[in-house]
Amino acid sequence: xxxxxxxxxxxxxxxxxxxxxxxxxxxxxxxxxxxxxxxxxxxxxxxxxxxxxxxxxxxxxxxxxxxxxxxxxxxxxxxxxxxxxxxxxxxxxxxxxxxxxxxxxxxxxxxxxxxxxxxxxxxxxxxxxxxxxxxxxxxxxxxxxxxxxxxxxxxxxxxxxxxxxxxxxxxxxxxxxxxx
Length: 180
What we know:
This protein is an all-alpha fold and 180 residues long. Helix content is 67%, strand content 0%.
């Protein structure tokens, strides 16, 4: 248990939405965890993803399982709403989705810009993750929470209006060039 206290004391706090760089990288975090946590926990950390597996499977962590279930539900709800807009069939059973997740998907798909929708979805993801935050700060789930929060912060920092417009224009110009 003392190694967990040491690990927790080494982790800097950070703001997900701050424009400054993060005080820790994923690689550094996992390296630090590999010195203080058991191999099973480190393997779970290494396999963590913001994109959950399509089929639910137990990971060995209640927090990670809950996060994956929530994120999987959101992705299925988004796919269902998008398919309905396009008048397409969606074959995944979405009857078990919570009304909150369906409403988040509907709200995001109704937004005027993709960037605005992504920012909204990221805020919802952060709120969902925060609701799963363990009370015990020295549990392995607390380190999984930190890792997921770090992954979300890194994802959020990738969104850049200028870079997005540049990429959009490049794709659009390429499409126009292929059409002529």
